[in-house]
């Protein structure tokens, strides 16, 4: 007789690197597996809506190709030849290698490398505790946030903004530099509600006619890296036509008269020549914003990923300060709420063991670090050992040719703790199987909203998978690293973190499931003053003193414009490289997560590049043809997709497909640069000049195989 499975709905929270950090209701089947994943209706930001890729998470967590056992490499690096070993063998091997490197080259020759494969505070950031106790090289995290955060905070003085749920009560929602239909669907939930209930207008500003642009009432298609020019022209019109709120400007901003004078020459005709937008569209956008006090600027990360990204973000954030939109509900701006949670991560990260003399290596320059660049190494010893969690740099990091060359070094020992055999894991000496978020306890907060929540363990992990915390403390024991958090369980660490951060204990949080800590209206809208000591919004920031996460001034910071402007430091087209390429997010992938799940792969199809038909015509490029993109960093082969929703001279390649999905194993980040961007560094993933060529040959994609032998099997060859 067939037994009916017992299905229980349990609360959880999405761990992926998305500002929505959605609250979830998960179907747990017989306490052993999961079914459908739903958005939690009780969370007023998630509002019952989640993206399709997380809704079908069962195909990822129960994927037949998950890593289940520790592995040791038996063939050349990248050959895919491994053998199964025990956890003790694996951990002992890693510890011996690290201790050997420390003894020969010093502790800084070991580099723990991680990022946002999980956004859980314990599992993501606990690697820093081992780093600090052992005096391993530090990591300055630059892959994602420095340009956007710095540009926003340059104006506000704090990484916080208006309640993002206020989009639903706005009369105009400006979605700038983000494609939330692909990357944070909840933004559209609240914006569409404003349209439906209030007749609000939705404006989208982006570099191609993506899914969000197609849903907008006004879609402003700008050339990459020109957002600052658009923002300046809008403010020019606001001052020119009497839309500037002078009472607000005099009370809350630093140099309004200086800004007005500076913008006299930044009119719509000036901006049109830079952005590609018609003058009429710039004028219409400025008039809409000027006449609509209740305008909400939802500012994303995309337009910050240019070499002038911080300047562009700051310029866009200045507009609601000119109109005084901050004064009303449904008005103002929002980029991230990461500054409101006040997390005390001293226990998670081992702050009591920090040695400020230890070097900080730039995460985005891992290729330069591993190939011995003296500047990237901060004139210190070579990196001889890596411990990698929560990231896949062999696909994700810029300057891929350097990255792969570095990982190919025979004198580099690499341990990767992963869920799948990623391209980084393929280069490892030891591969350790990792849990997924429903298989351990963790604490999460939403940078895109105002909630935090416990993500509890719902099911047991498959095989011998272990959590990040368990791996870190097991290595600590073997390495002689002492810290009290190595002897604590995740729930104990979470409870301590909550209490020390002023949010009560773990049981209190579990009782309410998710906690809303949105600051009061006057604070969120800066009506008591902005985050600087004088309470003024900065139109004229001191770029090397912006109170944002940083490792000191970097890049051409001395040449940054004093007031909002178009700063022409982007990789402009040349005769040799006449196109500009942006590597925009795919809808069904999240960086390289979900590139292994059948549903996501089926929806994305194959690596393609969008080309304007008039740019394709001179070379006779048709839909589906092989094309080559190249610059001084390397070359990549993709299929052509003719698309008139881009400006002439602009190319768009959506998603980070695995390198193995491309001919010759060269993925899109072969073309992206790792140079440090002003003022605090960062990777300009959407700022690349390239050449485009049709390829007449019938190219093939060779997928490397993985061979894992049991210890009882003989070694072939």
UniProtKB/TrEMBL annotation:
InterPro entries: Asp_de-COase-like_dom_sf, MoPterin_dinucl-bd_dom, Mopterin_OxRdtase, Mopterin_OxRdtase_4Fe-4S_dom, Prok_Mopterin_Oxidored, YoaE_C
PROSITE patterns on file: 4FE4S_MOW_BIS_MGD (PS51669)
Pfam families per UniProt: Molybdop_Fe4S4, Molybdopterin, Molydop_binding
Coiled-coil intervals: none
Keywords: Iron, Iron-sulfur, Metal-binding
Family classification: Belongs to the prokaryotic molybdopterin-containing oxidoreductase family.
Protein name from the UniProt record: Molybdopterin-dependent oxidoreductase
Source species: Microvirga makkahensis
């Amino acid at each position: 007789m067939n037994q009916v499975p017992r299905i229980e709905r349990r609360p959880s929270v999405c761990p992926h690197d998305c500002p929505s950090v959605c609250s979830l209701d998960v179907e747990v089947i017989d306490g052993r597996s999961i079914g459908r994943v739903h958005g939690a209706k009780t969370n007023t930001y998630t509002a019952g809506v989640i993206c399709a890729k997380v809704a079908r998470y069962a195909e990822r967590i129960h994927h037949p190709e998950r890593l289940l056992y520790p592995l040791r490499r038996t063939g050349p690096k990248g050959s895919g030849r491994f053998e199964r070993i025990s956890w003790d063998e694996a951990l002992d091997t890693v510890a011996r290698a690290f201790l050997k490197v420390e003894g020969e080259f010093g502790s800084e020759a070991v580099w723990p490398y991680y990022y946002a494969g999980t956004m859980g505070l314990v599992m993501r950031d606990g690697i820093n505790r081992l780093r600090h106790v052992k005096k391993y090289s530090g990591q300055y995290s630059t892959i994602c946030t420095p340009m956007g955060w710095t540009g926003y905070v340059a104006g506000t003085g704090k990484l916080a903004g208006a309640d993002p749920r206020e989009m639903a009560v706005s009369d105009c929602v400006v979605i700038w530099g983000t494609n939330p239909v692909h990357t944070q669907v909840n933004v559209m939930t609240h914006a569409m509600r404003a349209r439906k209930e209030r007749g609000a207008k939705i404006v989208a500003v982006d570099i191609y006619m993506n899914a969000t642009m197609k849903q907008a009432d006004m879609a402003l298609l700008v050339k990459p890296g020109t957002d600052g020019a658009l923002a300046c022209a809008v403010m020019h019109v606001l001052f020119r036509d009497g839309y500037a709120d002078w009472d607000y400007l005099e009370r809350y901003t630093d140099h309004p008269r200086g800004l007005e004078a500076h913008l006299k020459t930044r009119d719509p005709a000036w901006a049109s020549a830079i952005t590609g937008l018609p003058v009429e569209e710039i004028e219409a956008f400025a008039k809409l914003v000027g006449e609509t006090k209740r305008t909400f600027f939802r500012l994303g990360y995309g337009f910050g990923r240019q070499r002038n990204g911080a300047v562009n973000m700051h310029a866009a954030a200045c507009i609601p300060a000119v109109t005084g939109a901050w004064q009303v509900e449904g008005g103002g701006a929002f980029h991230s709420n990461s500054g409101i949670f006040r997390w005390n991560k001293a226990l998670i990260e081992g702050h009591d063991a920090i040695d400020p003399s230890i070097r900080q290596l730039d995460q985005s320059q891992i290729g330069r670090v591993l190939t011995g660049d003296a500047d990237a190494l901060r004139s210190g010893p070579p990196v001889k050992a890596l411990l990698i969690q929560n990231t896949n740099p062999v696909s994700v990091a810029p300057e891929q040719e350097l990255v792969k060359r570095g990982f190919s070094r025979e004198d580099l020992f690499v341990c990767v703790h992963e869920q799948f055999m990623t391209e980084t894991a393929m280069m490892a000496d030891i591969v350790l199987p990792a849990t997924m978020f429903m298989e351990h306890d963790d604490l999460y907060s939403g940078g895109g909203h105002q909630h935090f929540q416990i993500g509890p363990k719902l099911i047991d992990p498959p095989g011998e998978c272990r959590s990040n915390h368990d791996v870190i403390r097991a290595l600590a024991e073997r390495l002689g690293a002492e810290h009290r958090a190595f002897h604590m369980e995740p729930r104990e660490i979470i409870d301590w973190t909550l209490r020390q951060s002023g949010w009560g204990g773990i049981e209190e949080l579990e009782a309410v499931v998710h906690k809303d800590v949105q600051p009061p209206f006057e604070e969120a809208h800066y009506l008591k003053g902005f985050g600087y000591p004088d309470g003024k919004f900065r139109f004229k920031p001191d770029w090397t003193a912006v109170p944002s996460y940083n490792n000191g001034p970097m890049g051409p910071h001395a040449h940054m414009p004093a007031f909002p402007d178009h700063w022409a430091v982007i990789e402009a087209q040349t005769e040799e490289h006449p196109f500009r390429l942006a590597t925009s997010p795919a809808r069904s992938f999240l960086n390289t997560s979900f590139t292994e799940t059948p549903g996501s792969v089926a929806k994305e199809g194959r690596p393609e590049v969008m080309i304007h038909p008039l740019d394709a015509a001179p070379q006779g490029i048709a839909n589906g043809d092989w094309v080559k993109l190249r610059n001084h960093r390397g070359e990549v082969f993709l299929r052509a997709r003719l698309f008139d929703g881009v400006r002439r001279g602009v190319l768009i390649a959506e998603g980070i497909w695995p390198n193995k999905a491309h001919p010759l194993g060269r993925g899109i980040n072969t073309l992206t640069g790792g140079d440090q961007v002003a003022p605090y560094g960062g990777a300009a993933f959407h700022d690349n000049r390239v050449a485009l060529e049709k390829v007449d040959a019938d190219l093939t994609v060779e997928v490397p195989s993985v061979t894992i032998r049991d210890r009882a099997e003989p070694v072939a060859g």
